[in-house]
Each structure stands twice: as C-alpha cells, then as structure tokens.
Amino acid sequence: MSAELKAEQEFSKVIRDRHSVRKYDPSWTISDAEIKEILEEAILAPSSSNLQPWRFIVITDPDVKAQLLPIAHNQAQITDSSATIAVLGDLEAYRNAETIYQYAEAAGYVTAEIGAAMAKRSYDGYSGMPAERLKDIALIDGGLISMQLMLAAKARGYDTVPMGGFVHDSFKELFGITERYVPVMLIALGKAAVEGRPTARLPLEAVTHWNAFQA
After folding, report:
1. Per-residue pLDDT tens for 115-142?
2. Is residue 61 in a domain?
3. Which Gene Ontology molecular function entries are recorded, alphabetically (predicted)?
C-alpha cells in the first residue's frame, strides 16, 4: 500500500502525540518524494557554527534491510517499517564551511568577504579541535536533527522510533563508512500497526532549576 498522510497538525499536538512505535504496517510504502520532504524539514535544525555535520542513509530496499536486521539486534521495525534512516555525524564537517558560505552568499545572506572570513574562522577553529570534541559536537548535532526528523514525520501522520541499539562497527562495514563518520542512531519510519505506548514524565519541578543547581 502506498499513500501520503499529510495531515498538518498543531505543534503542541504533534509533540504530545509522538511516541516511539515498534510495530509497523509492512505493506505501507512511503514515497521517496515524501521522505525527501521530511528530510528537507529536518535539515532546518540548528548545528554548531551551522556546519551541518549530519548525513543520512535512507534504507528502503528489502535486501538491505535484511542485512541490517541482525546488526540491529533483530529489531522487527528494521524490516517492517517503510524506511530506516541512519543518521551519521561528519567529524570533519569543517571541510564544508567554504561551500556552506558560498550558498549563503548566493542567497544574499552574507557578502563574499564576510562569507570567506567566516568560513576560514570555522575551518581554523574546528580543524584544530581534539577528535573527541569533534565527536561530541557531531553527536549533539545528530541528536538535534534526529528529533526534528521525528517531529516532521509525526506532523504528517507517520510514526518513528530512534534506535541506538545496533553494532556500530558492523553497520559501518556493511555500508563502507569511513572513520570520518560516526553513527548517531537509526530511525524507523512508517505507519504504525500498533500505536506507541504513552510514557510517564518526571514533573517539571523535578528537572528544572532556576539560577542555581541543586543535585
């Protein structure tokens, strides 16, 4: 089955209705065009110095899903969902600074002079950082875009579940991913066969402090 669930929803409803879904309708297909629309909204997420270190692998081929399944500890949503989207972080995203500011210049956001200066500042600053710091940044930015992706999907009536439970080395080997990139998470995307279970949240007072912190 293939169709589009483009029911626009208010943001407050989207964030309250989004739950992790692990059982999907395996007959439901989301078109490549609609997946691209979801990703187009996801990439509007913020990132450190706007370096946009995220990269995606959209996995829809049943044979590739079957190869991924044991790597993801046989989680059924890998094969039953319409797509599994792998989110990667680029540890050398600073190499794209010049290109990013060229786009910004073309859009009229910066002058050529300012864009070149900002690109150089980003390259010089990030290229000198320790590898562990670059990994931290890539994981943080990868988390930001992953959440935005899941909300964009829910706004269209689809469901998702983020998965950190997979063998990273085997995943990288399967897709030929170099050491420049770090896996952030896998996100199953599709039409729920069973609705996600609501979960309890700690009260706001238990997690929020004002002007100080008390453990």
Report:
1. 999 999 999 999 999 999 999 999 999 9
2. yes
3. oxidoreductase activity
Cα–Cα dist 93/135, whole Å: 11
Domain range for residue 193? 11-207
- Mean pLDDT score across all residues of the chain: 95
Domain for residue 141, yes or no? yes
Task: Report the distance separating Cα 84 and Cα 187, nearest Å.
Answer: 6
Cα→Cα distances 144→10, 64, 131, 151, Å: 20, 26, 20, 11
CB 1 within 8 A of CB 29: yes
Residue 212 placed within a domain: no
Q: What is the CATH number of the domain that holds 113?
A: 3.40.109.10
177 is a domain residue: yes
Report the domain count for the chain.
1
CB neighbours (10 Å) of residue 154? 21
Name the burial class of residue 173, with classes exposed (0-12), middle (13-18) and buried (19+) by CB atoms within 10 angstroms of its CB.
Answer: exposed
Q: What is the pLDDT of residues 130-189, one digit of tens each?
A: 999 999 999 999 999 999 999 999 999 999 999 999 999 999 999 999 999 999 999 999
DSSP string, 10-46: -HHHHHHH--B---B-TT-B--HHHHHHHHHHHTTS-
